[in-house]
Design brief:
The structure holds 2 protein chains of 2 kinds. By secondary structure, chain A is mainly alpha-helical. Chain A is built from 20 helices and 2 strands. In chain A, helix 4 runs parallel beside helix 16, helix 14 packs antiparallel against helix 15 and helix 19 runs antiparallel to helix 20. Chain B is built from 2 helices and no strands. Classes of the chains: A mainly alpha, B mainly alpha.
């Protein structure tokens, strides 16, 4: 009987054996982590929309390493390092996910597509219930985005890397992706994965922060439903177009994000049903699916062995925690300045992460008092959070791209 | 919307004035003056957008939702 070379039959195992032991261990860990993400996503513990495609991508890319030539190992999923036009043209015809990466990731298109979808599901009418309070809470909820920046610099990251990881505090993953692509291209994969990982845990983690910082009798404060105005679509469209234009004039580098968000908002308010369904369905879910899949595929063993990844994990958590605390402090300030009629739980919704944090606020208020209805105000703070996050991203990108090497 | 023209126009002009300060005036200045103009410009933009948002306010009688009667505990 001829000798069977099992390592040749299962090339994924052969490349694992042949590679550096550290890489081999990292590959096994990432395969296990990918499977765990799929399991936890399917179970609902983590956000399934992003974790299922990301998990399967991570597991398969780390298992599917093969010999591309006698001495070269790699995959036929994607090669993010290629920049030479001739090689890129070759790779586009070999690696099956390369076209999506090259034409939607590198230029931030996928982040903008997600933002169009978010705009199409966001009703800015809620923000207009109490615009000053909503914006104040949203700005307070940027505490993590602002404070993590000096912390990250003190821990050894460059200004651009520090700004990119600090954006995790804005709790808008497309924004994190967009900023890190512009400011810290080498770290955009781990930063975006850290962002999505933590954001998918918001729904589970923030309720504990709310309960820790706000006593039950305050969580149950009922809001005055009389103050909810009936804002017409024409007014929402006018507000959206003025705000979008002004913000684009102010931050041209973040103009694609502003345009994407507000085009979604305006399409929603214009009532063109086909466009609303297209943006809030096909575009939002299609781009989220490919975003998750590509992030998973980009998370190879070599990426996680970057010594900065552990630091990013710590800083990402710090950013989101500080933003949550900042939002709740903002909620408290509005509670005191409003004559103690404002439910401070709404503060957590200023963190953004539409609509998760608004749902957290409503759930916590309802648990404390089954007649407490805070969702309209929470959605207002949430939408304001998207706008304040885009403004902070615009400031970081504008200042750091201009003034740092 | 008609009765709130002052808010719409005033807010827009205020925000545009802020943009002008940040993008046009501040680069022409140097040092502390430039920083002050930038901060003032950003603040004017926020104030302008807030004024525009305030244009959508309604009287209580025009509220979208009515007061819900509380159930007795």
């Amino acid at each position: 009987m001829p000798e069977i070379d099992f390592l040749n039959i299962f090339q994924g195992i052969a490349t694992m054996v042949a590679s550096d032991p550290l890489i081999a261990v990292a590959r096994v860990v990432l395969i296990a982590l990918g499977i765990a993400f799929v399991f936890l996503g399917a179970k609902g513990t983590l956000e399934p929309l992003i974790m299922i495609p990301m998990g399967i991508g991570m597991a398969c890319v780390n298992a599917g390493v093969l010999y591309l030539s006698a001495n070269t190992m790699g995959t036929i999923f994607i090669d993010p390092t290629v920049s030479d036009p001739a090689k890129l043209l070759d790779i586009l015809q070999i690696d099956f996910l390369q076209p999506i990466y090259t034409f939607t990731f590198s230029n931030g298109l996928i982040a903008c597509l997600v933002f169009m979808g978010i705009g199409a599901i966001s009703d800015i009418g809620y923000m207009l219930i109490a615009p000053v309070r909503c914006m104040f809470i949203a700005i307070m909820a940027e505490l993590g985005t602002l404070l993590t920046f000096p912390i990250a610099v003190a821990m050894g990251l460059t200004y651009k890397e520090a700004a990119a990881i600090a954006m995790v505090g804005s709790a808008d993953a497309p924004m994190v992706l967009y900023t890190s692509l512009l400011l810290a291209r080498d770290l955009f994969v781990p930063i975006t994965i850290v962002a999505y990982l933590y954001l998918s845990l918001c729904y589970a983690g923030y309720p504990y922060l709310v309960r820790l910082m706000i006593p039950k009798h305050l969580r149950g404060i009922k809001m005055d439903q009389k103050t909810v105005p009936n804002v017409s679509p024409a007014e929402k469209i006018t507000f959206a177009i003025i705000t979008a234009t002004v913000l684009c004039l102010l931050f041209p580098v973040a103009a694609p994000l502003f345009m994407s968000f507000f085009v979604g908002v305006i399409v929603r308010e214009s009532g063109v049903k086909q466009y609303v369904e297209f943006l809030s369905g096909t575009v939002l879910y299609g781009s989220t699916f490919f975003l998750g899949l590509l992030l998973g595929v980009l998370f190879e063993a070599n990426t996680i062995l970057n010594p900065k990844v552990l630091l990013l994990l710590f800083l990402g958590m710090t950013a989101l925690l500080l933003s949550g605390i900042g939002g709740i402090i903002g909620g408290y300030i509005v509670y005191w300045t409003s004559g103690r009629t404002f439910n401070p739980v709404i503060g957590i919704a200023g963190v953004s992460c539409v609509p998760t944090t608004a749902k957290v606020a409503q759930k916590e208020a309802h648990l404390a008092n089954k007649f407490a209805m805070v969702l309209p105000w929470a959605m207002g703070a949430c939408v304001s959070g998207v706008i304040s996050s885009a403004i902070i991203a615009g400031i970081y990108v504008t200042v750091l791209q201009t003034h740092t090497p | 919307m008609r009765g709130k023209k002052a808010y719409w126009i005033g807010g827009t002009l205020t925000a545009l004035l802020g943009v002008g300060l940040v993008r046009l005036l501040a680069p022409a200045l140097a040092g502390v003056a430039s920083s002050l103009v930038v901060v003032a410009g950003y603040l004017l933009v926020i104030v302008g957008i807030t004024i525009v948002a305030l244009a959508t306010r309604r009287k209580d009688s025009e509220a979208f939702l009515t007061i819900e009667k509380e159930a007795k505990d």
